[in-house]
Amino acid sequence: MSAPVISVRGATAALGSRPVLRGVDLTVNHGEVVALLGANGSGKSTAVRAVIGQVPLTGGAIELFGTEQKRFRDWARVGYVPQRTTAASGVPATIREVVASGRLSRRKLGFLTRTDRAAVERAIELVGLADRAKDSVSALSGGQHQRVLIARALAAEPELLIMDEPMAGVDLASQEILAATLREQVAGGTSVLLVLHELGPLEPLIDRAVVLRDGCVVHDGPPPKAVGQHALPGHDHVHPHAADEPLRTGLLT
Amino acid sequence: MEFLEPAFMQRSLLAAVLVGITAPAVGIYLVQRRQALMGDGIGHVAMTGVGLGFLLNSSPVWMATLVAVAGAVLMELIRAYGKTRGDLALALLFYGGMAGGVMLMSIADGSNANLLSYLFGSLSTVSDADVTAIALLAAFVVLVTVGLRRQLFAVSQDEEFARVTGLPVRALNLLIAVTAAVTVTVAMRVVGLLLVSALMVVPVAAAQQLSKSFRTTFVLAVVIGVGVTLSGTITTYYQDVPPGATIVLLAIGVFIALTVLATPLARRRARAAEAASAECDMAVPGTRPPTDDITV
Question: Where are stretches of biased composition, namely Basic and acidic residues (chain A) (predicted)?
Answer without folding.
Answer: 233-247
